[in-house]
Amino acid sequence: MNESTMIQLRNVEKCFKTKAGFTYVLRQITLDIAEGEFITIMGPSGAGKSTLLGILGMYDHTWEGEFLFSEQPVHRLNPKQRSVLNKRFVGFVFQQFHLLDDLTVAENLDIPLSYRDVKRSERQALVADALDRFNIVGKKDLFPSQLSGGQQQLVAVARAIIAKPKLLLADEPTGNLHSEQGRDIMELFKKLNQQGTTIVQVTHSETNAAYGHRIVKLKDGWLVKD
Question: Which of 21, 99, 216, 224 could form a disulfide with 144 if both were Cys (CB 3.0 to 4.6 A apart)?
């Protein structure tokens, strides 16, 4: 196996049980992602893009096949062990933000740092930095429900990158932003990628896709050959 391969998926499949039998959301996904790559997953709605991202992020545990993450066999780990890997290495921008409603903006940003043995004083400095970088200093004591969709999206992106994850996963990361903010986020991703962060994004936007190195297309749960 190549030193620099971060992710290896082999015949990964996911299905749901329905009255009619099993419905497959992903079929025989075999994919390698190198460390430092910037990959875009594209495809029509319902193609399985978000599902694949959830598996890569180790949030989804009900799938079959093999998944190696930096040589760790994720398919052999229990959900608790997967969660440890996720917290140490993965940043995730969810489509629905997933901010914690009962925490302020600043507290939401602190959470990923609290998983990574970062000293409290250092955490405060990193949170202050992120608030500044995303122009949300004035929002730090507000709760997610007090923010607009665009502001929540900025907080979600800030939270995903604050602990400098090795792998950044982003599901429509600019969906709620006006075009200038969206461009800023993509430029930021590009910079993070140049500094070594591996990025996998799901997007419908050709403009956003152009920031990546290659496009992986999904259709009806299958990988479509380029």
Answer: 99
Domains of the chain: 37-63+75-224 (3.40.50.300)
Alpha carbon distance 50, 67 (integer Å) = 17
Q: Is 122 helix (H, G, I), strand (E, B) or coil?
A: helix
pTM attached to this predicted model: 0.92
Contact yes or no for 68/8 (Cβ under 8 A): yes
Which residue carries 């790559």 as its tokens? 37
Answer for the pair 159, 111: CB distance below 8 angstroms, yes or no.
yes
Closest among 209, 212, 130, 214 to 164, alpha carbons compared: 130
pLDDT (0 to 100) of residue 96? 84
How many CB atoms neighbour CB 56 within 10 A? Answer: 25
Instruction: Report which residue type is found at 63.
Output: W
Six-digit token pair at 174? 């600019």
